[in-house]
Every structure is written in C-alpha cells, then in structure tokens.
Write a structure and sequence with these properties.
The chain has helices spanning 3-11, 25-34, 49-59, 70-75, 78-86, 116-123, 136-141, 168-178; strands spanning 18-21, 39-41, 64-69, 91-97, 100-101, 107-108, 127-130, 148-153. The protein has 179 residues and is an alpha/beta fold. It has one domain: Rossmann fold (3-Layer(aba) Sandwich), CATH 3.40.50.970. The strands form two sheets. It has a six-stranded parallel β-sheet, sandwiched between helices. The chain has a two-stranded antiparallel sheet with strand order 5-6. Helix 1 packs across helix 2. It is globular and about 40 Å long. Bound molecules: thiamine diphosphate. Thiamine diphosphate binds next to helix 2, helix 4 and strand 5.
Length: 179
C-alpha cells in the first residue's frame, strides 16, 4: 500500500480536525484526496510539520493530525522529545514511513535501519501505535490524555497528482480563517 492510499485511510475519518501535510507529495496527495480549509499544506520547511503541529495543538482546542514522513521526522528528531514533554493531548503525529525521501526521487532514508515506533516510545510518547494494529477512527474520536504517535508503514511511490494550485498566501489565509 502506497502513501496515497494511507492518506485516504486517514482522511475518511477526518471531519473537523486540523491537518498538517508534509512537504511535497504528501501534501499534493492530501490536496487531491480531501482538500479543505483546515488542511495546512506545508510547502517548504522539511522537518517542521511535527513542530508546526505542536504549535497548533498547544494554541488550539481542536485535534491536530500531522501527516509526516520518515525522512522529515529523522531530520528533526528533537521534535519528538519536545512533543512528548509538552504532551498536548490533542496532537496525533502520524509518520508515514516509506523508507525513502519519496518526494525527491526515492533516495533511501535511515528508517530502514531503525524502529521509529521504539524511537517515539523512548522519546516519551505514552500513546504510540502501529497504524495497522489500531482502529484509527477510535483514536481520532476519543479524547486522549496524551499526545499520540502513529507509525504507518507504506511502500514507496508517489501518486500521479497535480500540484497544489493555491498560492502560499491563500493556503495560510484560508487556514487561519478556518481556525
Ligand atoms: C532542508 C531541506 N532539505 C531538503 C529538502 C528537499 N526535500 C523536500 S521533500 C524531501 C523528502 C521528504 O521525505 P519524507 O519526509 O520521507 O517524505 P516522503 O516524500 O517520502 O513522503 C526532500 C529531501 C527540503 N525541502 N528542505
């Protein structure tokens, strides 16, 4: 199963939640699957989807779902420690792990050699799950007491989707207006 179908599996349960899309194809796929004002398509800042999600979770009451990538979370591992310690209960960080930098040509990442779920647990996440072993809808609907980390293993490959034909200003404005 590729990232595109993984995002579909997640988005079919998303209603009012804030969603942060990782740079590149994850955001482009999200845009095609379910564009909404409450999606924040992060365009340039590789590694920072989780940090942006943390800031949103700390400042908003709504649940925040971050669609991150393995290469990006490995680039900003400190973010896991910060999130686990700040521990906003409305943050769900999903790392879609295809073991490659998919958006730039499938160069391998180090995630092939490490267990990101164990890394998240070691960083202090009290709720950490394998997507395939949970009922995601339940996790999304129920009130959690801590931040949630979800490891979602996918195969590599990007869907044949277009670019996001919104200006960065529009993405920001409509997102800010919606929250
Ligand atoms: C600081 C920085 N380095 C590199 C890039 C180029 N870049 C954009 S997306 C990406 C790959 C992201 O990989 P991953 O987080 O694993 O997500 P995937 O595309 O595989 O879903 C890279 C290397 C960038 N935008 N910024």
């Amino acid at each position: 199963m590729k990232r595109y179908d993984g995002i579909k599996n997640i988005m079919k349960y998303v209603t009012n939640e804030i969603v942060v899309g990782n740079i590149g194809f994850p955001s482009r796929e999200l845009y095609e699957i379910k564009d909404r004002n409450r999606n924040f398509y992060m365009l340039g800042s590789m590694g920072l989807a989780s940090s942006i999600g943390l800031g949103l979770a700390l400042s908003q009451k709504e649940k925040v779902v971050v669609l991150d990538g393995d290469g990006s979370i490995l680039m900003n591992l400190g973010s896991l420690v910060t999130i686990a310690n700040q521990n906003p209960n409305n943050l769900i960080l999903i790392v879609m792990d295809n073991c490659v930098y998919g958006s730039t040509g499938n160069q391998p990442t180090y995630s092939q050699n490490i267990d990101l779920l164990k890394v998240a647990k070691s960083a202090g996440f009290k709720n950490s799950y394998d997507f395939n072993e949970i009922n995601f809808k339940d996790i999304l609907i129920k009130n959690q007491t801590d931040s949630t980390f979800i490891h979602y293993k996918t195969s590599s490959g990007n869907a044949n989707v277009g670019i996001i034909d919104l200006t960065p200003e529009t993405i920001k404005k409509r997102f800010m207006d919606s929250i």
